[in-house]
Amino acid sequence: MQPLTIRGMSSLGEAFRTAREARGLTLSDAAEHIHIRSVYLAAIESEDWPAIGAPVYVRGFIRTYARFLGLDPEESVARFAERVPSESPSQIAAAMATMAAAQPERRGPSYGAIAGIIIALGLVLFVGYEYYAYRAGQDASPAAIATAPVPLAAAPSPSAVVLRPLPPPVAADSPDPDPSSAADEQPSPGPAAKNAIEIRLAKRSWLRVAVDGTTVLEGIFPAGTIRTFSGKTAVVRAGNAAGVDVTVGGRSQGAMGGPGDVVERSYRLSQPE
Fold this sequence. Notes:
Helix content: 25-40%
Radius of gyration: 56 Å
Order of helices and strands: HHHHHHHEHEEEEEEEE
Largest sheet: 5 strands, antiparallel
Distance between the termini: 144 Å
Number of strands: 9
Number of helices: 8
């Protein structure tokens, strides 16, 4: 497409303004496309050359503006040169520096900002991973168990000692805990003898009974079990003291302790004459 001629126009500025308006553009539209401030484009159209600066500066703007509007850039510069004399080399150099500063800065993405975003994103991902690993470790680890000394229960007599926690496992050589088999070896329940101790289980419990220093019974027995032993002294240890009732010499001693208590008591079976 051949550039439009400006011959026949009354002025150079009128030629630029007519070409711009013919395209339906505003000064701001043109400035956005060619990156020259609209105030300088307006100065070209009004031929206010001092507002733009040195002639070399003006010629550069005229050439760019004319090319954008479809005018002949060299003819436009020639029309300008008819009215404005040429500059000295020093003036041209200064004007070129000013022209470079006058061009609006074309903003692009800041590499520093992009690097900062990447670093921040990496930090967020790292923190998220560390938190996930921490939570996974918490879920996988066994629950912490707080331990504290277990207070001894109050004993009803000086010979009673309450122990916690549960009793140790039944010894491998302990008697058969089956009450039916043990019943064959023990006397049948009946009136308590004078030097006898009777043990009744209201609840399932672990028992160990020593008479005159010899262990005569040890094991886990169900509710309803009854055992009677004779001698001079007896030491009874029960794993569920609330379910163990003791009778000595025909006198009930009541339950040995509270629910879940491990209680050991000593009893004197022989009474002074």
